[in-house]
């Protein structure tokens, strides 16, 4: 077994290891596979034949970059979701205001709230078009889970 192969094996062990050493969930497994592929690619490009520690250092650096990239993607999605939640809240407040001022004033507060919820959920679904149904429901529940924020008045 040559030095290059040792470096590759060490890098794969680093990529596969997490805080607990062995336990991996699906996301970490996918990331590990991605990191392995990336390491092989980098090794081919740089053609490292020298010191094992140098090869491992390069692998670690590339893996850190990949982890940061995946974190960035998760952050971006979280920001998009937060923006959607904010848009839904604003939309629901506007709908409630409009319903209070409409001809349906005689309708009870619960009816108005129910109508506003229905319309806001439709809005969330249209806004999240192209996303999974689960995401829409998740956003909707995050918007409306606290009733104190939206009193029935």
Account of the 3D structure:
- With 153 residues, the protein is mainly α.
- The protein has 2 domains: 3-73, no CATH class; 75-144, no CATH class.
- The protein is built from 5 helices and no strands.
- The longest helix has 50 residues, at 52-101.
- The model is unreliable at 19-24 and 146-153 (pLDDT under 50).
Please give a handful of descriptors for the protein shown.
153 residues, disordered C terminus
Query: How many structural units, i.e. domains?
Result: 2
Mean pLDDT: 63
Largest sheet: none
Low-confidence stretches: 19-24, 146-153
Class inferred from helices and paired strands = mainly alpha
Question: What does this entry show, briefly?
Answer:
The protein has helices at 3-16, 26-46, 52-101, 109-127, 133-144. The protein has 153 residues and is mainly alpha-helical.
SSE arrangement:
Elements lengths: L2 H14 L9 H21 L5 H50 L7 H19 L5 H12 L9
């Amino acid at each position: 077994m040559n030095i290059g192969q040792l470096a590759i094996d060490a890098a794969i062990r680093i990529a596969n290891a997490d805080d607990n050493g062995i336990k991996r969930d699906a996301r970490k497994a996918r990331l590990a596979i991605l990191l392995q592929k990336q390491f092989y690619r980098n090794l081919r490009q740089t053609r490292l034949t020298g010191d094992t520690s140098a090869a491992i250092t390069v692998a670690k650096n590339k893996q850190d970059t990949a982890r940061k990239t995946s974190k960035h993607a998760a952050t971006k999605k979280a920001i998009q979701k937060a923006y959607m939640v904010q848009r839904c809240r604003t939309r629901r407040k506007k709908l409630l205001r409009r319903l209070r001022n409409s001809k349906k004033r005689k309708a009870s507060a619960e009816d108005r709230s129910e109508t506003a919820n229905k319309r806001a959920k439709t809005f969330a679904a249209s806004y999240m078009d192209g996303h999974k149904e689960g995401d829409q429901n998740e956003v909707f529940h995050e918007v409306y889970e606290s009733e104190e924020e939206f009193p029935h008045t």
